[in-house]
Amino acid sequence: MFKFTSRKTLLALSVAACLSGQAVANDTAIVLQTNTGNQENLVQLVQTGTATSDNFIIAQQVGSGNETDIQQSGTANEIDTYSGGDANSVLLKQDGSSHLMLVEVEGNNNLVEVNQMGVAQEATALVQGDDNQISIVQDGGLNWTLAEFRGNGNSYEALQDGVFNESAVIGGLGNDNTVAIEQDGFANVGGIVGLRGNNNDIAIQQFGDENVFIARTFSGNNNELNIFQDGSGNEFQINPLNGNDNVVFVDQVGANNLIEAPIGISGDNNTYDFVQAGDDNYIFFASVGSGHDLMISQTGNNNNGEMILVGSANVGTIETTGDNNYAGIGLVGNANNGRISQNGSDNFALLDVAGDRNRLNVNQAGNANEVIVTGESVNNNNVTVNQRNGDLNLVDVLLEGNGNTLNVLQRGSQNWVGGDNAPSFRVAGDNGTVLITQQGSDNLVLGAQGGVDNVLQVVQIGSFNTAIVNQNAPN
């Protein structure tokens, strides 16, 4: 066992030379340095063992301008180091399996680099101060990294290659920080938990199957979160994100992927863009606030996309390309805009509105399209449905309120405009407008418009058309 305590660089270098030249299995090295002046301390430790090695190192520095360089080769190695002061550099490397590493850095302009090669490795980096950098590279399986930082301008980067890897930023606090995590393998987990701050830039890439990324209790303004998952059975969860002017991009490529945000986001003027390419994907998202821009894009078969927007002046868009797609938008509030575009077969769209001055638009191109629009005690809303180049198009409408406008255009065969869970549509209220145009064969319009000062127009072009509408029906 070697133990050295010094304030001088020269003695630290002697320690490093001794350790690098004479290290054997089961060695333990402890170095403590305290700098009360302007000296720049340097510690270098090298331990090399065999398959039965069980090396252990503790290196501690207190002061400014310090540097620690530790390398271990073997199995079951452990590193525990602390640096206190400004402009510190800690460079760590472990080559083998079952490593354990804890790095604590306190001060400004610090740099921490961790390189572990092997399996079942664990690295924890705790940083407090400004302008710190953390870079972690792990190669193998069962790797685990955790970073926690306090301050501004911090940078954290983790690269993991293998299976069952985990990497997370927990309890971060500060502004203008950068987090980059890349995982390649199977059943990897990445997460941002409890991060608070503004102008943070977070990028996550996961390659493989059954990967999961979780963002929880994430708060702040002007943050950007960019997630890319390539594989099958991947999952992204955000629950919740609080703040204003945040941007979130999620891109999933593969089959059976999931995006969930049941209590989603709260704040104003946030932008969310979700993309899924593959089969049997699912998205559910909810937001509370004003001025949000939410976009869901799905390409493939049997996709499901749902969003709920609570607030005002929000824009929600769902675009699907493929077969048997379902898209649903719920608007609660005023002056919101909901858009659904489906290009494929057997598409189904649901729009539910609770509020005033909202605009809803559905565009379906394909076969057997269906749209349901519902709203009770809503005023001055505008609903437009366009179904083209499809057979068996169906529009079910139930709107109650004043000043609402419904515009339906169907181009195809066997078109139908009726009511939600009823044989006829119903638009109730005063000063409403209903415009229905059908181009095709076997068209049918059944419905009722209740109230006063309403306008109703039905245009049918084709064969076997039927229009039965009861205007000024009781509300």
UniProtKB/TrEMBL annotation:
Keyword Glycosyltransferase attributed: no
Signal peptide interval: 1-25
GO CC, any one term: pilus
Swiss-Prot/TrEMBL keywords: Signal
BP term (GO), one: cell adhesion
One Pfam family hit: Curlin_rpt
InterPro entries: Curlin_rpt
Protein name: Curlin associated repeat-containing protein
